[in-house]
Specification:
- By secondary structure, the protein is of the alpha+beta class.
- The chain has a single domain (2-253), classed as 4-Layer Sandwich (Deoxyribonuclease I, Chain A), CATH 3.60.10.
- Helix content is 23%, strand content 27%.
- It has helices at 11-14, 19-26, 45-48, 87-90, 117-139, 173-184, 210-213, and strands at residues 2-7, 30-34, 54-58, 69-73, 79-82, 95-100, 103-109, 143-149, 187-189, 203-204, 216-217, 220-225, 232-237, 249-253.
- A six-stranded mixed sheet has the order 3-4-2-1-14-13, with no helix packed on it.
- A hairpin with a 2-residue loop joins strand 6 and strand 7 (103-109).
- The longest helix is centred in the middle third of the chain and has 23 residues, at 117-139.
- The radius of gyration is 17 Å and the shape is globular.
- 40% of the residues are buried.
Length: 254
Amino acid sequence: MRFVSWNVNGIRAVAKKGFVDFVQSSLPDVLCLQETKAKPDQVPKEILALKGYEKVFIDATDKPGYSGVALLSRTHPDEVGFGLGEERFDREGRVVRARFGDVTLFNVYFPNGKMSQERLDYKMEFYARFLETVKGLDRQGGNLVICGDINTAHREIDLARPKENAKLSGFLPQEREWIDDLLAAGFLDTFREFDHSPDQYTFWDMKTRARERNVGWRIDCFYINRRLRPRLKNAFILPEVMGSDHCPVGLELK
C-alpha cells in the first residue's frame, strides 16, 4: 500500500500547477494533503473529478482560506474521523483519521509557532494532545501511521542552516524534544529507516528562492509505530515534484 503526503499550500493554487497530472501518473493508494486553504465547495472541479478516488475535505470553521486537510483514497476507508476531540484544536481543521483494514492513518497539519508566543504555546499544546491520543491507541494494540507537515525539523541533519535557526520556531529545543518523545513512545521516522544522508529536504522558502539552492527543511514526515515495522517496505521524498513550497513524501507498506 502506497501512501503519499503533501502540503500543497493551497489546493486551488496547486490545481493550476500539475496536481492532477501528478496524481494520475503516480497513483498513490492514499493521498494526504495539508494546508488546502479551501472549503469543500471551493475545491477545483478537476480534483473532484479524479476517477477512482474517494475524497474527504475538512477546513477551518472560523478562518476562511486557512489550514485544512484532505484525504483521497483508492480504497474505501472502513472508518473516518476528524480532529482530536478538543474544540480549540478541531476548529482549525488540522486532523483527519482513517482506518484501512488493520491500519489507522492520521493525516495532520501541525500548527506553526512562528507568529507569536501565543501560537507557539498553542503548537506545543496541540503536540501534547496529539501524542496523548496516539499513545493511547498504540497501547490498545493498533497499527498506526502518522503523516503530514510536522512544522519542526528534528535534528541538525534535517535542515540546511541549523545554527541560524536554533532560536526560531521550527527548530526550538522544546519542539525537537516533542519528536524525541514521539520516538521514545515507540514510533519510527520512516525516512530515516532507509536514508541517513544530509541535504534531504521537503520545504524551501519561496521568497528567497531557497529551492534552487536546496536550502531547506525536512519537516514533512511519515511515522509508524513499531508494530508496523515488519511491514515497512520503503519511505521516500519526491523533491522533483513542483507546485508548492513543500514537496510530497511517501511510504510503502507490505
